Amino acid sequence: MPTNPATPNPSRLKKGEGALRVLGVDPGFGRTGVGVVEIEGGKARHICHSCIETPASDDFSLRLQVLRDGIIEAIKEFKPQAAVVEKLFFQTNVSTAINVGMARGVILLVLADAGLPVVELTPNEVKQAVAGYGSADKKQMQAMVARLLCLKCVPKPDDAADALAIAMAGGAVFLTKKRLSSNR
């Protein structure tokens, strides 16, 4: 599992029948949030969350390798059926936006190599789906993630909580698209 893992409950590693296992990724190059949920019967269940961290002192290409390896490890360990990645929506710092864009590219490539269907959502789409309000703040989102996943406390770090929200929102979008395409 990626660096700084939250210890998964071994009973949660086995996928439930009929459940959709979703990998959510909150991209970054310093910290990338990773969250895994299962969705069944319209309800999400927490599987695991963590954060892939890379030291700022490392060469950027090495940081991208660490990110790649962490996502590959999460796919191998949790065997998701779909993945959700947050879109790069807006950055005031151009060099940060470019670096996060490169990290997103690495993530999307790993997911494509794994043959996973990918849903991409903007931060506002995630907020709307999870909190019911596209302008929800970070605390509201974290509280909703903990509540919807029946967690005793807010997942930490923030990037991991964001990844769980991304997984829940994108999992619902994936299932809706799947149902619509099967009704044709």
CATH topology: Nucleotidyltransferase, domain 5
What does the main sheet amount to?
5 strands, mixed
**H-E order:** EEEHEHEHHH
How would you classify the quaternary structure? single chain
Proportion of residues in helical segments: 40-55%
CA-CA gap between termini: 39 Å
Mean pLDDT: 89
CATH class categorisation: Alpha Beta
Strand content: 15-25%
Looking at CATH, the homologous superfamily is: Ribonuclease H-like superfamily/Ribonuclease H
Gyration radius from CA atoms, angstroms: 15 Å
SSE layout and pairing:
Layout: E1 20-26, E2 31-40, E3 43-53, H1 60-78, E4 82-86, H2 94-113, E5 118-121, H3 123-131, H4 138-148, H5 158-182
Parallel strand pairs: 1-4, 4-5
Antiparallel strand pairs: 1-2, 2-3
Helix pairs in contact: 1-2, 3-5, 4-5
